[in-house]
Q: What sequence folds into this?
């Protein structure tokens, strides 16, 4: 086809003409065919022979050098096509098509390869699996080695997305297995393995059932509510491959932390039950409810919470706990209790009823209060430290609840009116002194204990200290003091009403500190078992106590027992039996205690071994520290 195009500024026109060549020899250059043709045993093979030629050519076929003729399996079609049905291995070979007209001749040759049928040796099978597990779907074949093979997988009719992290093709060659990791409910369905070769296409399918915990129930509704029960209904969620066995009901209030399981009637709700009555609720409390389903796999996600619903009000059914009291000021009876939690108050207008009477009386006095946990009853006629029997109850707009058990509470007492006698003190060391007194065994008021106050200087309040002990003690050691410092102190008794009168002030001076220097120039010598040790006297500083003597401590090597010897002089003689090593230390003594000890001194004794021509051998060793 030839076309002429004419164009100027006003437009464009076309003119076409067709040139037909009506005489040409056969030519296969524009009808290329595959040089190798593969077919499986038993299939049909078609080989075309359509060269370009005019006039149309006469065609013939040869297998190798053998001229082919039509048979019951071989067909030579008018258009030159060769068709062989039910091919076998005997059909393998080279096939040549010859085309001829008056202008010439041409031929084309191709080779036929007949292969054994491909077989699926292991294909996927129907399976049930739990959410979160991983599996491999097998797809393995046996095929002719000359075939090219490819595997692909389809899920519910769609080719699998190779980018999905849950899927991975594993195996190779004649295996196209599919691994599915961390299976989810969405992976349930039909899986098809497709095998494509040069000569055929096969497939194998399997159904995968994925089981998981049930889906969340829906539409949780409170159908009816009383002061202690609530009737619920809901719609079930998906069973996710495993029938629902039971339901769990949970509730939450403003007074609880998180969701909590509740009691229901019936206690066990089976998978077909879509209603339940929750019991043991508290009156006048707002509740939310939710439902969870359980199957053989596990417990599923919870339903959305129901609307908040308040139970009806009721008479209080909880009594205040831990009723007690005592103390306070003169003519007072202090009563305390543990308040009833808001979630147990059962209604509006909540308060407490206090019933009290003097021990031994019959008539109760009742007091109503909204105070949470403490009430002070005042009456000038109340004698100090009088016993009262007390009980506390609760009430609200619906009525009065139960009382607590009766307990005994004492009214306020008066502080002690007498002071301790026989107060004296002595210094124990540079940081401690001891204070003692006579107990008030015949005090008209109750005495719970004694208080010692001490100070350095009346003009410096920060130096004030205070120590309290129980009533059965008549002495106390006060430590953490300054050395060689004068302290002032008084003693008084106390009870819940306060402290009584203080004793006249006395003073005490702490001792000087012990010697701060260890003995020096220590020398020792050892003859047999006799150890002699010498040292220089310790000279004390102005703020240190005078030396009253010395203490020598010694212990055998690898033993824990410590032996001590005291002396008024600067030497000592020790008998150290046994062939062993010793460690000794020396320190100065004073009224304030032991001074600084020397560093440990190791005494090494020599073992007794026989010496020729000698009756006795002695050694003298001197050491200076």
A:
């Amino acid at each position: 086809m030839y076309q002429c195009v004419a164009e100027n500024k006003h437009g464009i026109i076309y003119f076409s003409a067709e040139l037909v060549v009506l005489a040409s020899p056969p030519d296969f250059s524009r009808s290329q065919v595959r040089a190798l043709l593969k077919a499986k045993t038993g299939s049909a093979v078609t080989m075309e022979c359509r060269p370009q030629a005019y006039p149309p050519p006469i065609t013939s076929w040869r297998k190798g050098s053998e001229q082919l003729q039509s048979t019951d399996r071989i067909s030579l079609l008018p258009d030159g096509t060769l068709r062989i049905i039910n091919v076998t291995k005997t059909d393998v070979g080279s096939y040549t098509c010859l085309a001829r007209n008056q202008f010439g001749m041409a031929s084309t040759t191709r080779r036929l390869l007949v292969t054994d049928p491909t077989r699926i040796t292991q294909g996927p099978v129907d399976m049930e699996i739990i959410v979160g597990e991983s599996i491999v779907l097998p797809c393995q074949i046996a095929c002719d080695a000359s075939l090219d093979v490819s595997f692909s997988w389809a899920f519910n009719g769609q080719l699998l997305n190779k980018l999905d992290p849950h899927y991975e093709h594993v195996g190779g060659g004649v295996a196209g297995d599919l691994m599915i990791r961390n299976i989810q409910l969405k992976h349930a369905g039909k899986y098809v393995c497709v095998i494509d070769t040069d000569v055929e296409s096969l497939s194998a399918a399997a159904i995968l059932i994925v089981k998981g915990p049930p889906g969340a129930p829906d539409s949780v509704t409170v159908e009816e509510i009383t002061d202690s029960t609530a009737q619920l209904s809901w719609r079930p969620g998906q069973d996710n491959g495993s029938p629902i066995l039971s339901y769990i009901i949970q509730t939450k209030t403003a007074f609880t932390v998180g969701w909590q399981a509740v009691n229901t009637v019936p206690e066990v709700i089976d998978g077909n039950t879509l209603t339940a009555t929750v019991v043991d609720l508290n009156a006048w409390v707002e509740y939310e409810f939710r439902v969870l389903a359980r199957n053989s796999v596990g417990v599923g996600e919870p339903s959305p919470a129901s609307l908040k619903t308040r139970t009806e009000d009721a008479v209080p059914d909880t009594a205040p706990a831990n009723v007690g009291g005592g103390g306070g000021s003169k003519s007072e009876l202090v009563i305390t209790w543990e308040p009833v939690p808001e979630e147990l108050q059962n209604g509006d207008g909540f308060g407490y009823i206090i019933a009290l009477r003097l021990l031994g009386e019959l008539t109760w006095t009742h007091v109503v209060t909204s105070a949470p946990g403490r009430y002070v009853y005042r009456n000038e006629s109340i004698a100090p430290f009088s016993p009262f029997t007390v009980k506390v109850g609760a009430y609200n707009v619906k009525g009065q609840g139960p009382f607590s058990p009766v307990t005994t509470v004492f009214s306020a007492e008066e502080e002690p009116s007498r002071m301790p006698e026989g107060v004296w003190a002595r210094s124990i060391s540079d940081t401690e002194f001891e204070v003692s007194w006579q107990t008030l065994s015949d005090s008209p008021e109750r005495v719970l204990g004694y208080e010692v106050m001490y100070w350095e200087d009346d003009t410096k309040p920060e130096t004030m200290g205070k120590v309290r002990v129980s009533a059965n003690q008549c002495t106390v050691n006060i430590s953490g003091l300054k050395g060689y410092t004068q302290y002032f102190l008084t003693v008084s008794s106390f009870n819940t009403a306060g402290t009584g009168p203080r004793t006249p002030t006395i003073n005490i001076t702490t001792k000087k500190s012990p010697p701060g220097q260890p003995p020096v120039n220590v020398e020792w010598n050892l003859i047999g078992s006799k150890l002699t040790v010498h040292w220089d006297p310790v000279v004390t500083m102005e703020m240190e106590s005078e030396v009253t003597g010395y203490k020598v401590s010694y212990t055998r090597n690898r033993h824990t027992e410590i032996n001590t010897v005291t002396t008024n002089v600067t030497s000592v003689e020790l008998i150290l039996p046994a062939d062993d090593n010793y460690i000794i230390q020396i320190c100065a003594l004073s009224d304030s205690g032991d001074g600084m000890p020397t560093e440990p001194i190791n005494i090494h004794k020599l073992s007794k071994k026989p010496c020729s021509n000698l009756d006795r051998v002695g050694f003298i060793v001197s050491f200076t520290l």
